[in-house]
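Consider this record:
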Amino acid sequence: MEKELDVMNDKSLLRRQIHSWKENKESVAYVPTMGSLHEGHIGLVRLALSHADRVVVSIFINPTQFDRREDFKTYPSSLDLDISKLSDIPVDILFAPNIETIYPFGAEDATVISEPSLTKNLCGKYRPGHFDGVASVLIRFFNIIQPDIAVFGQKDYQQILVVKRLVKDINLPIKILSGPIQREVDGLAMSSRNQFLSDRERLIAPEFYKFLKNIVTQIKENNRNFYELEKESLRKLQAKGFKPEYVKVCHADNLQEPNNEDRNLVLIAAVKLGKVRLIDNICFSL
């Protein structure tokens, strides 16, 4: 008999159900999303299903992680379609709370959780307050759901490191898993925001990943002049019509500047194309 998706917005009912599972020694995996689900999200759900007895997916557009209120207001929302997509796979519960459930005193007066080390640069520099919002909302969902496992996508690489540090720092018994970046046929990383690209921008967008692959190729061919590679890629991206924010080669574990002895690296980048912000990364070893 196939599972039937249970859609909940009451945290007390959700906690009661999860408590029942745990009494039966069933493990729980959690996949946080902001909805407008695509194949990248579905891949994370399937990863969760392969690691736990029960899976909870949340859909919550979190106001505290948007540095611009207009971005929050225009973030795509398609709950009915998302429910349909999740109903096709054996997810146990979709938790779709309202803002008052997650922020009982209001989002503006909510207690803030801040990770001070990993959030100073890269996306943290260009989106002030973003990672405070991410950490603050996740700690609330972790407390409500109390999962054994939480699953995130590698596309948000800096976010994964922030979450891993958060969990370790606060001593939460949660294993963090990351799923690989899901890409369109032309290489563009899947994102809910891609739908806002114009036809012309959508044709240009795959060049972003091509530039990153080219940099990694040069590094693997023993070009260790990271600064010049980054500087040249910014120039070329701009010439193609992107507005680059950053392109950085970092140590994969802590996002610090790598030295010549480091072997586990990540190339991480963010650009704007029209009104859409694109992020991507490639992890690689030397």
